Amino acid sequence: MLNILRAGLMTSVQDRGRHGWRQYGISLSGALDEPSMRTANMLVGNAENSAVLEIVLGQFKAEFRRDGWFALTGASCSAELDGQPVWTGWRLPVKKGQVLSLSMPTRGMRSYLAVNGGFAIDAMLGSHSTDLKAAFGGWQGRKLQDGDQLPLGKPTRRFGHRAGVRQLLWGNRIRALPGPEYNEFTHDAQDAFWRNPWQLSPQSNRMGYRLQGSPLQRSVARELLSHGLVPGVVQVPPNGQPIVLMADAQTTGGYPRIACVIEADLYQLAQIRLGEPIHFIRCTLEEALLAKQQQQRSLDQIAWGLAHEDRS
Amino acid sequence: MQRARCYLLGERAVVLELEPPVSLVSQQRIWGLCQRLQQNEQIAEVIPGMNNLTLLLRDPQLKALDAIERLQRWWEESEVLLAEPRQVEIPVVYGGAGGPDLAEVARAADLTSQQVVELHSSADYVVYFIGFQPGFPYLGGLDERLHTPRRAEPRLVVPGGSVGIGGSQTGIYPLAAPGGWQLIGHTPLSLFDPQQQPPTLLRPGDSVRFVPQREGVC
After folding, report:
1. CATH fold for domain A173-290
2. Facing residues of B94 across strands?
3. Is A179 on the interface with B (CB under 8 A)?
4. Alpha helix locations (H) across A12-57?
5. Do A25 and B65 make contact, defined as CB atoms within 8 angstroms?
6. In the 8-state DSSP scheme, what is residue A271?
7. Which of A130, A149, A184, B118 is deepest in the core (most CB within 10 A)?
8. Which domains does chain B have, with CATH numbers?
């Protein structure tokens, strides 16, 4: 059992998301920083798609009600286990009764907490992710509250020692491909999109990141019919302020799509703080596919390194 | 045959977009194509939209660009899916607390509330696709006299089960959400239940009829 003493701003149960249900209007959900989520699971020997806690901006406290191992990844935040420092990107042992507390991160937005054995929560529609809008999945279909008691799964592995990995780095240069309606925007708008910094608005959430900057004008007034949406799509509503769709985005929409953030860079958005600037970098399909391959290779190396270390 | 444009959206999604106008026949072909694509190993998901469909490749590293050409060909070979349409009746309490905008819709259409209910409940609607919310049906077939602009001030919370009109569309909100549609009634029916298989009451191609309940205007 994990006893939540302080749930923080927004802590939710997430995995890689609910794939295959968008034709029913059901959003993807899932960890916004997928590499960090997977890394946390690898560290504690769980399947990569096991449920973890996504903790936004720290300020979280929980008591372990059994012995085990845990890992914290993602945002750089000072965390402590009964007063002893906890390093992000490390697997550490924990004894029953010990309290893990996270303070506000110095860098980044989201921390991921994985526990060896995972959380013993039923999957819904094939996923443990919380669908916060439709209020199902995860822990009672909602963000965690103080006093929640999350059942933990049986530990599947024993570890002899602590282990740490080099996590993926993140920055604010986000690569994107031009979207289907890119050419319907004025030349000035196209230039501005790539050249100007965009401020991440406080109204951003897991559905969409709202960006602030000089409004983007379209040169065509054509209304679009509703079409399927995927995370990463950058849509521009009539006010000209772009929105990057994130994991909880609705499944269909009708705003023009100026660009699409490449999959390999979505996790970086997950860690950018509200109010910070974002730069979009235009890239090609080949670069996007290569970036994804490289990211997978980095994660494979982490997994390999851990497997090697555990054997030695 | 209606011309189609195929393109990539990001690196994983391939979109087939038909030229206007929207028609039931081409939407039926989209349903047919969606069904066929779902059986393809290389395709992870298919999302039908209005006059378009979006498919997600399982592994975009395998020649994302080829997929565009293939989708175009599949469209050309596709057939209208004319499965026996399921008839779904939706009981609705029109007006009152669950339909606060019924009088407004009547005023805009220069009709009485009773006439609005009669028009709204005498048509057979077709589910074109599901989107926006789990189980939210985009319905075709609203009588032109009932086309009503969305509210100038969207509501912060539209209760789940609300039946509304937004422009030329009518639909049902399965879950509470912010929304700008004019609300004319409320159904006690659940349109989304993640415990059920399938989790939504309605599917593309279904035929829907609203049945006025005695507790409301009828």
Report:
1. Cyclophilin (2.40.100)
2. B185
3. yes
4. 34-43
5. no
6. H
7. A130
8. 4-77 (3.30.1360.40), 87-212 (2.40.100.10)
DSSP character at residue B218? -
| Band of pLDDT at residue B1, cut at 50, 70 and 90 | low
Give residue B33's identity as a one-letter amino acid code.
L
List, for residues B110-165, the tens digit of each pLDDT value. 999 999 999 999 999 999 999 989 999 999 999 999 999 888 888 989 999 999 99
And the tokens for B52? 């378009």
Helix (H, G, I), strand (E, B) or coil at B169: strand
Instruction: Please report the pLDDT score of residue B64 as a whole number.
Output: 72
CB pairs under 8 A between A and B: 133
pTM of the model: 0.94
Cα–Cα distance list, A307 to A16, A69, A201, A300 (Å): 22, 16, 41, 10
Instruction: Write out the two tokens for B216.
Output: 């409301």
| Per-residue model confidence as pLDDT tens digits over A167-209 | 999 999 999 999 999 999 999 999 999 999 999 999 999 999 9
What are the tokens at A270? 């997950």
Query: Do A252 and B131 count as a contact with CB atoms less than 8 A apart?
Result: yes
Cβ burial of B186 (10 Å; 0-12, 13-18, 19+) is buried
User: What tokens appear for B144 in the block?
Assistant: 């032109």
| Contact status, residue A14 vs residue A52, Cβ threshold 8 Å | yes
Q: What is the pLDDT of residue A308?
A: 84
Nearest-CA residue of chain A relative to B55?
Answer: A228
* Distance from C-alpha of B196 to C-alpha of A123, rounded to nearest angstrom: 13
Which of A189, A179, A186 is closest to A253 using CA atoms?
A: A179
Q: Which residues of chain A lie closer than 8 angstroms to B60, CB-CB?
A: 289, 292
Please name the member of A25, A180, A260 whose beta carbon is closest to the beta carbon of B132.
Answer: A25
The Cα–Cα gap between B16 and B8 comes to 9
Phi, then psi, of B108 in degrees rounded to 5: -60, -30
Interface predicted TM-score (ipTM) = 0.93
Directed axis angle between helix B64-77 and helix A285-311, to 10°? 120
CB within 8 Å: A134 and B15: no
CB contact under 8 A, A292 and B192: no
CA distance B194 to chain A (A): 7
8 Å CB contact of A134 and B175: yes
Residue B80 confidence class, pLDDT cut points 50, 70, 90: confident
Q: Do the strands B13-18 and B4-9 form a parallel or antiparallel pair, or are they unpaired?
A: antiparallel
Q: What average pLDDT does the structure give for chain A?
A: 95
Domain map (residue ranges) of chain A? 2-164, 173-290
Which one-letter DSSP state was computed for residue A245?
E
Using CA coordinates, name the residue in chain B closest to A18: B45
CB of A267 closer than 8 Å to CB of A33: yes
Q: Which residue has the tokens 């960890």?
A: A31
